[in-house]
Amino acid sequence: MAVKVYGFIGSNAVYRVLASLYEKNVDFEFITVNMVSREHKRPPFLARNPFGQVPAFEDGDLTLFESRAITKYVARKYADQGTELILKDPIQMAIQTVWMEVENQKFDRASWKLMEIAMGRVRGGPELVAEYEKKLSDVLDVYEARLKENKYLAGDGFTLADLHHQPNIYFLMSTRVKRLFESRPHVRAWVADILSRPAWLKLMAFSP
User: Fold this and answer.
1) Which residues pair with 63 in a beta bridge?
2) Which of 24, 97, 171, 182 could cross-link to 78 by cystine, CB 3.0-4.6 Å?
3) pLDDT tens digit string along 139-190?
């Protein structure tokens, strides 16, 4: 049975999952969920994700939700094809896990709030914008030091630690927050690299 992804194009969580599938060269069927009509709150979708959020994911008899859990599954299930997104060496995997946690616990919280402000979902005056730009800047300072020593966050190769950043960075590069990435040379080079990967470009061209 084919892999199925339920969601809508434009969702950063959906992009995260689709990016992993493209990196692993996994064919999939995309099923658009109509958020305007609240399809995601109806029983058929809630059977796939009881929290009523996208994405939902099916691979045969397996149903998953939560984008980062899905990308880890994809990386392991299809380990022998495409990009090696999860490192096999236990020490390298421990380092990768650290940076995956940093993305989830620190980068995502600051960057997502700035995305919400930019999209008008949260009313943000100058004080709120400055607060979250400072939080993101603090994270990017750590990234700059890390990327000065390594091409990617987990080491020499692109992994889920980098991939999980792609959707939020892609959005923020079209906002005033872009300057926070551009002002740090190693972060700037890393952003240019991960947003020019063939899998990401294929995703950007995807239209269900």
Assistant:
1) 58
2) 24
3) 999 999 999 999 999 999 999 999 999 999 999 999 999 999 999 999 999 9
Residue pLDDT, tens place only, 80-139 = 999 999 999 999 999 999 999 999 999 999 999 999 998 887 777 788 999 999 999 999
CA-nearest of 107, 130, 112 to 122 is 112
- How far apart (Å, rounded) are the C-alpha atoms in residues 27 and 25? 7
Distance CA 66, CA 56 (A): 8
Kindly tell me the sign of the dihedral angle through the C-alpha atoms of 63, 65, 69, 75: positive
What burial class does residue 113 get, using C-beta atoms within 10 Å of its C-beta: 0-12 exposed, 13-18 middle, 19+ buried?
buried
